[in-house]
Amino acid sequence: MNNIVIEKFGGASINSAAAVKNVITILRQQNDRKRVIVVSAMGKTTNALEKVVNMWHTNKRFNIEEFERIKEYHKGIAEELFDTNTLVSVLQQLEDIFEQIKERIKTLNPLDYNFLYDNIVSYGERLSSTIISLYMNHVGLKHRFADAQNYIKTDNTFRAAQVDWKQTQKSIDKDFDYLFDGNDLILTQGFIGSTREGYTTTLGREGSDYSAAIFAYCLDADSLTIWKDVSGLMNADPKRMDNTVKLNIVPYKEAIELSYYGASIIHPKTIKPLENKSIPLYVRSFNNPELQGSIICHGEQVVPLVPNYIFKEKQTLLSVSTKDFSFIAEDNIANIFSILSKHGVKVNLIQNSALTFSVCFEHSEFVLQNLIDDLQQFYNVKYNNDLHLITIRHYTEDSIKEATKNSKILIEQKNRVTIQCLIKPETESA
Ligand code: ASP
Ligand code: MG
To answer: 10, 83, 248, 323: least buried by Cβ within 10 Å?
Structure first.
């Protein structure tokens, strides 16, 4: 243990000037340890930058309207944070970054989508960390800035880069002693990294949690805290269900299961590095920092032990049968899976019988028709859209009834701990 803690602040925690000030208040409350602060892009900036990238990709047109919106949003936050004397220089620095975005996109091949994406979308984190670092200076919160691209080293899988752990460890080891010399606070960005050649990469949407876990692992941190807009890990999405319950203690393995089934609590890759080094993960509310939150750590059982609900919408159920009505056996299944894999389909549920093989996956209009065309060369294909997949961990009879009310159950699968129901909602819940 190194007496270092990692704290991650996501987009919602820094989406306005007031939110940034709140982060500073939280950071000022505990200062007896060395800390690495990992920040995401502000608010919905990543989505907005995706729009700029998408238009360049599809029409080779620079989306000036969206670009201006992003610029105004960041300038607006800066205007509220800094006094007039400082503001001029802050705005100039932001202006320079926006000029860079504009210039850079024009040099990028619109067709090389993933490369283009990482180059431009990564600016969300560059902007947020620049503003926050300048604001920390402004309010006298002493820190050093560490550009994550110099530390998170990855392969060339743009948009879903795989971490090169050896290089990452080496880069962090090389600099962090110096960065912590006479200084307790380091500010860095989530989500972004770079290849050996220095090209910008990203770790996939919502990847800042993962970045924070990588820093925690490589620095042998005492803990990682993820600050969120909820009071901890809940047993269901509060937007979908009433009477949700906070989970106080969640074993690493349970957290991995929950994110595997699609709970959008923390980025799925976050847990494993922490588990390997027994680093506890705290999930706490930036709106109520006095509350305890949830802790993810070693353990046998989630506390309290209540049913956990995970909803996935926009599911497609696709059923395949052989044209000659022969049985669906191993050779067919292998062929079906190689076609699914060719189209990048991530299967959420499988059901087979003698004559049909069904798979459920998230609907994507880009994928579905091409997939069907390929499958139809060999099989008869039927499909059904707009389904919901409900997973309940630690289910009870009541919890199943509650989760599937007003809907028709198309598939139900259960084991001792988990039930999954694919349903067609008959009445949309409000
Ligand atoms: N800004 C990135 C995203 O919104 C990464 C993150 O927030 O974790 O996906
Ligand atoms: Mg985000």
So the answer is: 83
May I ask the CATH architecture of the domain 4-228?
A: 3-Layer(aba) Sandwich (3.40)
Domains of the chain, by residue range, sit at 4-228, 308-425
What are the tens digits of pLDDT across the range 72-111? 999 999 999 999 999 999 999 999 999 999 999 999 999 9
Q: Is the pLDDT reported for residue 344 higher than 90?
A: no
The CA distance from 260 to 269, in Å, is 10
Q: In sequence order, what are the beta bridge partners of 309?
A: 392
Give the Cα separation of 402 and 390 in Å (integer). 11
Q: Which two tokens stand for residue 235?
A: 């047993």
Report pTM: 0.90
51 CA → ligand 1 middle, Å:
15
- Taking the C-alpha atoms of residue 65 and residue 72, their distance in angstroms, rounded to an integer, is 11
How many Å lie between the centroid of ligand 2 and the Cα of residue 39? 9
- Residue 163 corresponds to which amino acid? V
Mean pLDDT of the chain: 95
Closest CA to 13 of 53, 46, 40, 45: 40
Residue nearest to atom 2 of ligand 1 (CA): 206
- Ligand 1 pocket test target in 191, 200, 224 with most atoms within 8 Å of CB: 191
Render pLDDT for 6-18 as a digit per residue (tens, 0 to 9): 999 999 999 999 9
* Ligand 1 atom nearest to 47, measured from its CA: 4
The verdict on the CB of residue 124 being under 6 Å from ligand 1 is yes
Ligand 2 center from residue 141 Cα (angstroms): 24
307 lines ligand 1 (CB under 6 A): no
Domains 4-228 and 308-425 belong to one CATH topology: no
Residue with the smallest CA separation from ligand 1 atom 5 is 206
Per residue in 136-173, pLDDT (tens digit) is 999 999 999 999 999 999 999 999 999 999 999 999 99
